[in-house]
Design goal:
Elements: H1 18-35, H2 39-45, H3 50-59, H4 77-90, H5 92-112, H6 115-126, E1 132-135, E2 151-155, E3 158-169, E4 176-183, E5 186-193, E6 199-203, E7 215-225, H7 238-272, E8 274-275, E9 278-279, H8 284-312, H9 318-342, H10 354-366, H11 371-383
Parallel strand pairs: 1-4
Antiparallel strand pairs: 2-3, 3-7, 4-5, 6-7, 8-9
The structure holds flavin-adenine dinucleotide.
Pfam families: Acyl-CoA_dh_1, Acyl-CoA_dh_M, Acyl-CoA_dh_N
Protein name: Acyl-CoA dehydrogenase family protein
Keywords: FAD, Flavoprotein, Oxidoreductase, Transit peptide
Length: 389
């Protein structure tokens, strides 16, 4: 954190307990020490040390942080949200590592797995020794996962999986994947060790967004799994969708981190940069940009805290998470773009984080349900009519 200027116009910190603020401070320091000094380089090279970061994050209890047992920290939803915000103030890709590990892969096993699955995988995943990924999206089926082409069929007691999963975060480095496939009974989840014969993972190259994140394709070619690879309690598409709700909740908070870092950077820059004989921060048009950005940032924060408190009370609904994801990512992207203009030509340089945040937020707008899909979720709630198909 470089600036001393306050962004907390509404004193929203007063909404937090001492414990929440202490957790936030730990994650902020860790991002300052381990992410900020290196992330521009990771981003430019398109390579991120996933395993090293996972061990660092595990050291402060960030992996599966909001889960209980199996070495997980059992934090509140609000504390988890604050951690996501601080991580994404470093980089959306770094936050994605934690989201996919904890909210998608670990949560799926924690919620729907057998005792054997949990004992086998969760302690190692919480410790950062095992990297997990979550394979739902396919090359031809993204927003409409119900149409997935990946199939699991019985062969005696075994399962045979065939299909391709695409855009899977952490796939090229993962030890284990939660793979969603169509069976005779509907959609089921499978715990697939990545070294199982027939599983191959290829890294997706040439990304112009989320470059400090490892993304891959998983090909499943006649993958033979024992009967107990099936997640016994995951029945139908609502199981993977419930995992997505967990991850989307983290994004509600995380996107605010990218926006906050963009605003901090622009404020610092505008205070020092002079044109026409005075700091550009003193121009009314610049201040209008700052005011609008700060107002949206604080409104988004209030929304995140509200959803977090509802999650901690056990009453958070998926469509409420859609409201948060739609609003906070859309506004964070607008803030990052606007802050980018304040940096002028320097705004397009990797020496400053703002363009990186803006580029990352293009992915965040798309994954975990596109903005349009969240609009449709909210539209269905308001009208009672589903407009997806
Ligand atoms: P499509 O579904 O083809 O959508 C294209 C456009 O059409 C979008 O604007 C969409 O909103 C719009 N559209 C689609 N249907 C409708 C409709 N009914 N009405 C109006 N508009 C519509 N997936 C995983 O399973 N695991 C991961 O770990 C993962 N990580 C990712 C990491 C990155 C970097 C990226 C970019 C993606 C990742 N994804 C992952 C995939 C992501 O969830 C999908 O990209 C997303 O669901 C959208 O699917 P799609 O890209 O196929 O777009």
């Amino acid at each position: 954190m470089t600036t001393t200027r306050p962004l907390d116009l509404l004193d929203v910190d007063a909404l937090h307990s001492e414990e929440e603020l202490a957790i936030r401070a730990v994650v902020r320091r860790m991002v300052d020490d381990h992410v900020r000094p290196n992330v521009a380089d990771w981003y430019e090279r398109g390579q991120v040390p996933v395993r090293d970061l996972a061990k660092e994050f595990a050291g402060v209890g960030l992996l599966g942080m909001h889960l209980t047992g199996y070495g997980c920290a059992g934090s509140s939803a609000v504390a988890y949200g604050l951690a996501c915000l601080e991580l994404e103030a470093g980089d959306s890709g770094v936050r994605s590592l934690v989201s996919v590990q904890g909210s998608l892969a670990m949560f799926a096993i924690w919620k729907y797995g057998s005792d054997e699955h949990k004992d086998r995988w969760l302690p190692g995943m919480a410790a950062g020794d095992h990297i997990g990924c979550f394979g739902l999206t396919e090359p031809d089926h993204g927003s409409d996962p119900a149409s997935m082409a990946t199939r699991a069929r019985r062969d005696g007691d075994d399962w045979i999986l065939d299909g391709t999963k695409m855009w899977i975060t952490n796939a090229p480095v993962a030890d284990v994947a939660v793979i969603w496939a169509r069976t005779e009974a509907g959609v089921n989840g499978f715990v697939v060790p990545m070294d199982t014969p027939g599983v191959t993972a290829r890294e997706v190259k040439h990304k112009l967004s989320l470059r400090a994140s490892c993304t891959g394709e998983i090909v499943l070619d006649g993958v033979r799994l024992p009967a107990d690879a099936l997640l016994p309690d995951a029945k139908g598409l609502k199981a993977p969708l419930s995992c997505l709700t967990e991850a989307r909740y983290g994004i509600v908070w995380g996107a605010l981190g990218a926006a906050r870092d963009s605003l901090h950077t622009a404020l610092d820059y505008a205070g020092a940069r002079e044109q026409f004989g005075r700091p550009i921060a003193g121009f009314q048009l610049t201040q209008a940009k700052f005011a609008d950005a700060a107002v949206e940032l604080q409104k988004g924060y209030l929304l995140a805290v509200h959803l977090g408190r509802r999650a901690d009370a056990g009453v958070l609904k998926p469509e409420q998470v859609s409201v948060g994801k739609l609003n906070n990512v859309r506004e964070a992207l607008a803030i990052a773009r606007q802050c980018r203009t304040i940096l002028g030509a320097n705004g397009i340089s990797a020496e400053y984080p703002v363009m990186r945040h803006a580029a990352n937020l293009e992915t965040v707008l798309t994954y975990e349900g596109t903005s349009e899909i969240h609009q449709l979720v909210i539209g269905q709630k308001l009208t009672g009519l589903a407009a997806f198909g």
